[in-house]
Write a structure and sequence with these properties.
The chain is elongated and about 85 Å long. The strands form two sheets. Strands 3-4-5-2-6-7-1-8 form an eight-stranded mixed beta sheet, with helices on both faces. Strands 9-15-12-11-10-13-14 form a seven-stranded mixed beta sheet. α16 links the parallel β13 and β14. The chain is built from 19 helices and 15 strands. By secondary structure, the protein is α/β, with parallel strands linked by helices. 38% of the residues are buried. α1 packs parallel to α3, α13 packs antiparallel against α14 and α17 packs across α19. The chain starts with a helix and ends in a 15-residue tail after the last helix.
């Protein structure tokens, strides 16, 4: 009955002149009632109503304030079921160019949806969120906590970070949302969630209460090193871990990371009750950081979790955080920043901090600073040979890799590299062009799992498009079975000395394929699970070295006298 009535009234609203206030009020009341009865259909009702109001506000003359207020009431009605609506309602009176959320909404909405899965719809138990610095992740969590203490004032929430000054900054931000009635509309959204800054908070202890004073506070903020963490809070709401690793020095120190992980397990996680939700945010410095360790542990359990990792640059090399009104960071900003790291031979730090790709430097087999580089100018004279091993890939995140080596005496120069994780219809033309462009004299393909067919298509392209013929062979490489990955890792380790002697193009002369290959090469570590490693770059280099160093057995033919 309610549903059919809503749609009949909605049809009336669409057909009427634009300033029938009572019809709009009727629709709002119907939508609110439906939200209480059936959230899914209620949200459909409110979306229909918002579209009608959007349309009417464009043509209304004297009733803009009325429609403006109705829109705000809809957002407030949706707040228990939509963080997206709450964030808009919270800053409803702010000019959009000054607001935090709306200029960033397009980019942050997928993260908001994951937060709703965690906190509203109980689809997951833990959420791991990693993004670059200064893109809004902590402020986003600040908004989330303000929503939670307003909606669930009886719940106790705990926020932990690596340093006291960061905890204090978060506390001050939360206080601002709850008390600054010009900038934020928290009190209008949650009129029943009482908060008195005179006696319901303590800036020294970093806690506050909503609703009433409680033993375990609505919000408690503590440094992970705080002696008072034990007994500070029994968290039955949200347990937030925000940037628990203080920086690169701690990330690269195994002993300090070990101590940190003990504190997280023994002090922090023990504060959470069984059903509390856990939100982990931060920069992924190391696979052994608290986020990495936690993922490793719960992956073996029935705990429901989602990893949301957002790098600075997407697969097209474009910024993920170029917000409206000049907020955020442009593609050029990140590209220039990466160049600075490259020039300092510290691309691993850029990829950890900005691309969310943790690196275990202590176990690196090919540290960037230990490799040889040249400025793109090859030695004089013709090379003895130009050759390479092509390892085709067919999805699953693997890369087709063809390093192109020029040999001069005992020296190798990697003068080009095809490195792409696209489908074969994309990589085969790139491989063919790379072979032709460098006038390669020998190429070997791995023939496992469709590699022979892949090779034949490349040869066909070379002959038909470029009229180019060369020595192309194939070989069955390691089969990745029970110990295949470990065998491959051992082979890379055996060839590591020769790989480290190769001359690679300096960063400013590398194209995008080359950069990606070098990142994988310089990030490769001999520690950890071999089957989980990204090894396309070092593996193809090791097999390219094999082409030149392994002497193939040849059958010798000799004529001898007949003995009978």
């Amino acid at each position: 009955m309610e549903k059919s009535l809503f749609y009949r009234v909605l049809d009336v609203a669409k057909s009427e002149k634009y300033e029938n206030h009572q019809t709009i009020k009727d629709l709002l009341n119907l939508a609110k009632n439906e939200l209480k009865r059936d959230v899914k259909h209620g949200l459909i009702f409110t979306e229909h109503l918002k579209r009608v109001i959007d349309k009417q506000m464009k043509v209304a003359t004297v009733s803009k304030a009325f429609f403006y207020d109705i829109y705000f009431q809809i957002l407030v009605a949706e707040t228990p079921y939509s963080l997206d609506s709450y964030f808009q309602a919270l800053e409803f009176n702010r000019p959009i160019e000054q607001a935090f959320y709306l200029p960033r909404r397009t980019q942050l909405l997928p993260i908001v949806k994951d937060l709703e899965r965690l906190l509203i719809y109980d689809e997951i138990d833990e959420l791991f969120l990693s993004m670059p610095p200064r893109v809004g992740k902590t402020t986003l969590v600040l908004f989330v906590i303000s929503w939670y203490v307003g909606l669930h004032p009886e719940k106790a929430n705990l926020y932990a970070s690596c340093a006291t000054h960061l905890v204090n900054a978060f506390y001050k931000g939360l206080m601002s949302i709850l008390t600054d009635e010009v900038t934020y509309l928290w009190n209008k959204i949650f009129p029943l969630a009482k908060f008195d800054k005179q006696y319901m908070c303590n800036s020294k202890e970093c806690y506050l209460d909503t609703g009433r004073l409680k033993r375990y506070h609505s919000f408690t903020g503590k440094s992970i090193d705080a002696e008072s963490l034990n007994g500070a809070c029994d968290c039955d709401g949200i347990l937030v871990s925000d940037d628990l690793v203080s920086g690169i020095e701690e990330a690269l120190n195994k002993e300090r990371l070990g101590i940190l992980n003990m504190k997280v397990n023994n002090d922090l996680l023990s504060r959470g009750k069984m059903n509390c939700k856990k939100l982990w945010i931060g920069t992924r410095w190391s696979l052994a950081d608290p986020i990495g360790r936690r993922i490793e542990v719960i992956s073996l359990t029935g705990i429901r979790y989602v990893i949301h990792s957002r790098p600075a640059l997407n697969e097209k090399g474009e910024s993920n955080f170029d917000y409206l009104y000049g907020k955020g960071f442009s593609t050029q900003y990140y590209v220039d920043l990466r160049k600075i790291y490259e020039q300092n031979n510290d691309l691993a730090s850029f990829n950890a901090v900005y691309m969310q790709e943790p690196v275990e430097r202590s176990g690196l087999l090919f540290p960037a600073e230990d490799l040889n580089y040249y400025d793109g100018v090859l030695p004089q004279g013709d090379p003895e040979r130009v050759f390479g091993f092509c390892d085709p890939a067919f999805g699953g995140g693997d890369y087709t890799s063809l390093p192109i080596l020029y040999k001069y005496g005992d020296d190798y120069y990697c003068h080009g590299w095809v490195f792409d994780n696209g489908e074969k219809n994309i990589t085969q033309p790139k491989v063919a062009y790379g072979i032709f462009k460098h006038k390669m004299t020998a190429v070997r393909f791995e023939s496992n799992n469709g590699g022979e067919e892949y090779k034949n298509k490349v040869v066909e392209m070379l002959e038909k498009k470029y009229g180019y013929v060369l020595n192309v062979t194939s070989i069955t490489a390691f089969k990745v079975q029970q110990r295949g990955a470990e065998s491959k890792q051992l082979h890379i380790f055996d060839r590591a000395p020769e790989i480290r002697q190769i001359y690679f193009l300096s960063p400013k002369y590398q194209d995008e394929d080359y950069k990606k290959a070098m990142h994988q090469l310089t990030s490769y570590t001999i520690e950890g699970n071999a089957r989980k490693k990204k090894d396309d770059a070092p593996d193809s280099l090791a097999k390219t070295i094999d082409m030149d160093r392994v002497v193939e057995r040849k059958t010798a033919i000799k004529i001898v006298p007949r003995l009978f």
